[in-house]
Amino acid sequence: MEDTRFRLYSGDGRTIEDRKLELPPFEQPDDDPANYLADEGLCDAVNVALALGQPLLVTGEPGTGKTQLAGSVAYQLKLDKPLVFHAKTTSTAKDLFYRYEALRHFHDSHFHRENVRTEPYISYEALGLAILLSMPPKEANPHLPEFLRDQGPRRSVVLIDEIDKAPRDFPNDVLDEVENLRFIVKETGQKFSANQRYRPILILTSNSEKNLPDAFLRRCVFYHIAFPDERRLQQIVQRRLKMDSRFFTPQMLDHAIRHFTKIRQMALKKNPATAEFLAWVRIFKEMKIDAGLKPGENEAVAMTYSILAKNPEDLARLRKDLKETGSPQ
To answer: Over 70: is that where the pLDDT of 77 sits?
Structure first.
């Protein structure tokens, strides 16, 4: 009978078992906001945004820690986890504050043949919830989900993630609402304004896929997270990963960083970012791979390139370069 088991093969046709490599237990990446490492410029930008009460717009390559910043700010200020809005190509200004289930409302009104209130069909989204939570519970509770009632008035961190994915008009459509932190539910006519004492903290991220309108940019504090240098990468690894020096020495980490830096300098179609680097180092640690010391490690290093390369051309180029140079460094 044909063997139909799923088997993991290395580059030379041998399985993981043949190479005497044990699959490690799954290790969840450490996303503890206490371990977020912000550079001095980013800290300054956060403090300026807090002092002015303006949104902070953060750009940078994917995987450089833009999204995690919001969690770090909330942690440092001893606030609850951020309320998150993920911008999409179909997002409208209203979606940032609330959603209205028009079809369900119409269905219930039609089949129940009675006046059905609109309010139960309104659900509040990230910035809408933050504004409600800044208000006294007596005013906010009727509009909040049960698990958020009686928690205000309080300040919240709101993350608007990848705002550049939203339609071009989206930033302009929310100018007044974001600046004054107020909104109207058009379906009910209700108006909500944030208590300025508990003004929500807005952090927006962008991958710079398209330019944002000037009028919107003027209302934001801006910071670009540059890709970390070798020293910074070392600090990030030490902060984010549990490294046992018995199996992965500082010298091995140094080799991995030097090799990663070389890869970044190859001008691939899509350069790997910090997130890929952390995953790559985790594999090196689990498989006890040294990207520079032990002979015969090139085959194992080549196996790991699928973490860094995100298209066939880059993957082939990395493997070809390793084969031609005979050394990862």
So the answer is: yes
59: phi then psi, degrees, rounded to nearest 5: -115, 175
Count other C-beta atoms under 10 Å from residue 163's C-beta: 23
Among residues of the chain, what percentage have pLDDT more than 90? 53
Q: Is the pTM of this model over 0.85?
A: no
Domain ranges of the chain: 36-225, 230-325
Mean pLDDT of 7-17: 52
Residue with tokens 């970044």: 264
Per-residue pLDDT tens for 141-199?
999 999 999 998 999 999 999 999 999 899 999 998 899 999 999 999 999 999 999 99
Q: Are 130 and 80 in contact (CB under 8 A)?
A: no
Cis before 153 (ω within 30) = yes
- Write out the CATH class of domain 36-225: alpha beta
| Among the listed residues 293, 287, 226, 288, the one whose alpha carbon sits nearest the alpha carbon of residue 259 | 293
